[in-house]
Amino acid sequence: MTNESQHHASACTAVVGLQWGDEGKGKIVDLLSPSFDAIVRYNGGANAGHSVVVAGERYALHLVPSGILYPGKLSIIGNGVVVDPEVLIRELDGLGSRGVDTTGLVLSSRAHVVMPYHKAEDELRERLLVQAGNIPTAGEATAAAPSQAIGTTKRGIGPCYADKAHRATAVRVEDLLRIDVLSRRLRHICALKNAYLSAMGGEKTYTPDELIAWAEPMGRRLASAIKDTTYLLHDHLAAGKRVLFEGANAALLDVDHGTHPFVTSSSTTALGIPSGTGVPGTRIGNVIGVVKAYSTRVGNGPMPTEQINAIGEGIRQRGREYGTTTGRPRRVGWLDLVAVRYAGMLNGVSSLAVMLLDVLSGIDELRVCTAYRLVNSGGVGAVVTGRFPPDADVLGTVEPVYETVPGFAEDITGVRRRADLPSAARRYLELIERGVGVRVSHISVGPDRAQTIIEA
Ligand code: GDP
Ligand code: IMO
Ligand code: MG
Question: Of 36, 62, 117, 390, which has the highest C-beta tally within 10 A?
Fold first, then answer.
C-alpha cells in the first residue's frame, strides 16, 4: 500500500452493529466523534434509536447522527437514508431546546422521503400479514400458519425503500425544494397510492394538495441543510479530513445478508457505506463492530439463543431492554458467537466494542453459543456447524451448542482498565476474541460516555 492510499484508508472509520440492533452503536459513535470532522449516517431511517448518555443526560437519536453533541462537526445524513422530515425536524427542535447546536446538520438531496402514506402502508401490510397468519392453510385445518408479519417499527421504512426501487413513485429530499415539480408528480403518486391502500383495506386517501401543505413548510425549514453530500464528503476527504460512518440497524437485519424476510430494507453493514454515501469502500480503513455481551432482538424472526425464562427476564430488567424507538420489550438471549462471527466477516471488522458487560454481573454461569446443531440435516446423526445459515427457516430449527463459563458477581460499572475487571469477565472477553478472531478495542460497563474501557 502506498503512503497516500494508507492515508486515505485511515481517514474513514465505520461503527456497525453485529447482531440484531441496539448493540450500543450510538454510545460508541459519540465516544469516537471528537477524533472526526464529519459523522455520517448511510442507511435506515427513523427505525433506528441510538442512545447517548452524557453526565446522566440521555439523548435518543433517530435520524440525526450521534456525533451531534460535539459542536463544529458536520452531521451528515447520506443518500442511503430514508428521511421522515417530520421526525427529523422534531428531533432537531428537541436537541435545540436542550442547548445542542444543530447547525452542523447536512441532509443529502438524494435521500428519499418517508411520506405519510408510507407509514400507513407499513401499518396495513403488517396488519394483513398478521391476519393471514391466523387463517388456517389447506391441510392445516386447526393449526394456524405462523405469522409472516415482520414486526416492523411502522416508521414507513420498507414502503419508502420499495418506492425508491419502483422509481416513478419515489420522492427525494431535493423534491421538497421544487414544489411545482413535486405537486405534478404527486398527482400520479396519489392515484396509485390511493388505489393500492384502499385495496389493502386502508380508509384514508391522499390528495396532492394536502401532501404539498405537509411538505412545503418542511422543505423551507430544511432548505439550508440540503446539499450534494457526495461531493461534500469527497471534498472533505481530499482536504485530509476524517469521516466516521454510523451504521443503523445491524448486520443480521441486512436486507441481503440478514435473516430474510425478518430484516429491515437497507444495507446495514459496512457494505452499505459506498452506495449509501458515494464514498468507495477502499477508503474505509477501520471498522468497529459493536457487540452486546448477550443477544437481543426486537420484532419477529429466528433467534437461536433466545431465553424465554427467568434468565432472559433478569437480563431484560438489568439491561433495561425496551426499544428506544417503539418501547417494545426486546427479546433476550445468550451471546451467539456463530452469528457475531458471520457479522464480523461481512463487515470486515478490525476490532470489537463489547457493550453492556455490566448487565451480566450476578449470573452464576454464563453460556455462549459457539456452534449450531442442524437438527433437520437428514443423514445419520446431527451435523454441527460454526457457519451461520441466513435462511430464516433453517435458523429457526438449529440447536445452539453452548460453552458454559463462570460468571462474575462484582459491580464493574466503575472499572476503567481491562486488567481491573474480575478474572471471569476477562475470560469472557477472551472467549469473544477467540470466537470472532478479532481483538476487543472498547469495553462498555455502563451507559454513560465515561463508563468505557478503551484499548486503542
Ligand atoms: P444502538 O441502537 O446500537 O445505538 O443502541 P440503543 O441505544 O438502542 O440501545 C443500547 C442501550 O444500552 C441504550 O439504552 C444505552 O444507553 C445502553 N447502554 C449502552 N452501553 C451500555 C453499557 O455498557 N451498560 C449498560 N448498562 N447500558 C448501556
Ligand atoms: P438500531 O439502529 C433494533 C427491526 C424491527 C423489525 C425489523 C424491520 O436502533 O439498532 P423496519 O421498521 O426497519 O421495517 O423493521 O427490523 N429493526 C430494529 N431492531 N434496532 C434497530 O435499529 C432496528 N431497526 C429495525 O424491530 O424486526
Ligand atoms: Mg437502537
Answer: 117
